[in-house]
Amino acid sequence: MIIAESMCTMTTHVDLSLLNYAHGGGDCDADKACGTWDFTGLRRTMRGTRWPDILVLCEAERYAFTGGAGAYEAALALRQEQRDLGLRERPYVPLNGTLTQHRGPIAPTVFYDPTTIVVRQWFDGEDADGYERTRNLLKWWPAGAEDGPSNHLIPQHWPWNKPLGRVFDAEELTRYGRPGAPPAVILGDFNTAASGEDVAGWDAINWWQTIRHSQAWAGRPEVYDSLPLDMLLGVWDADQGRRVSAGGHEPGFADVAELVGDTRPTEAAKPPRPPQRNMRFLLNAGFRDRVVDGSYEVHDFLDEDNWDSDHKRVSVTLEVG
């Protein structure tokens, strides 16, 4: 991939990581109170030399409760892991988000390094003057380039059991793909596939149909509800070998894994369901041509036979100006 030349006087590389750490390491759930968090798996999943400027952690369950105890303890655990590895410590600052459709306190949390990232605004969805379209919107600059329009980052965690709920979430994001929109990356756990992707086995023993579809939903075995992602990425055209929008224009977003040709699964198999790729980075036109060559990575676990979560960490580096 060729990185486009920037019109700005300064460009820098910003590294992003995305991870779904099951229940945030907590022992809580919808029907019981939260006790403590165990960040051992988080530390093991992040172990290595690559520590991002911005980390989005999905399923940060109840991290915002009691003064943000979970979020700050997670930030401390990340710092301790870097210290034990003998690395420069990134003093991550947590920003707790929210979920759409009243799905509970298990939303993504953004951890950013204030030495490399300057935050302009953070909309967590709980603001008194908040709009649904700005939920979990982070406006930011790389440090040293705090001029001009800000960049956007919007963490997502779409509902796993609401096909129409995923459509509602996608509708709110289409605005970031309009022509002239600021550079934006939408990232998270999308819990679905796009058209043209291999979904063989996703409906094994009719599990998906039973759980995800009512009698009114027109789902069919081995056909997954690709509409939400297609609203952002475009529909796969097999004849052209690319994604196209119904209106004939370029789709609003591109999937980084498709751009670089690395569509390995990021989620463990849950028999009879095979491994899936729900963790994604979606880039609008402002970032589409700014993926640093070789930077996309699906990180291996320390023990591939004993995962520390049910999702792998994924990373990408963008050239930002």
Question: What's the helix and strand layout?
Answer:
Elements: E1 12-20, H1 40-46, E2 54-58, H2 65-84, E3 93-96, E4 109-112, E5 117-123, E6 137-142, E7 151-157, H3 163-173, E8 184-189, H4 207-212, H5 227-233, E9 235-237, E10 242-244, E11 254-255, H6 256-260, E12 279-283, H7 285-288, E13 297-298, E14 314-320
Parallel strand pairs: 1-2, 7-8
Antiparallel strand pairs: 1-14, 2-4, 3-4, 5-6, 6-7, 8-12, 9-10, 11-12, 13-14
Helix pairs in contact: 1-2, 3-5
Question: How would you portray this structure in words?
Answer:
The protein is of the alpha+beta class and 321 residues long. The chain is 19% helix and 22% strand. It has helices at 40-46, 65-84, 163-173, 207-212, 227-233, 256-260, 285-288, and strands at residues 12-20, 54-58, 93-96, 109-112, 117-123, 137-142, 151-157, 184-189, 235-237, 242-244, 254-255, 279-283, 297-298, 314-320. The strands form 3 sheets. The protein has a 6-stranded mixed β-sheet with strand order 3-4-2-1-14-13, covered by helices on one side. A 6-stranded mixed β-sheet has the order 5-6-7-8-12-11. Strand 9 (235-237) and strand 10 (242-244) form a beta hairpin. The longest helix is centred in the first third of the chain and has 20 residues, at 65-84. 40% of the residues are buried. Residues 1-9 have low confidence and may be disordered. This is Endonuclease/exonuclease/phosphatase domain-containing protein. It comes from Saccharopolyspora taberi. InterPro entries: Endo/exonu/phosph_ase_sf.
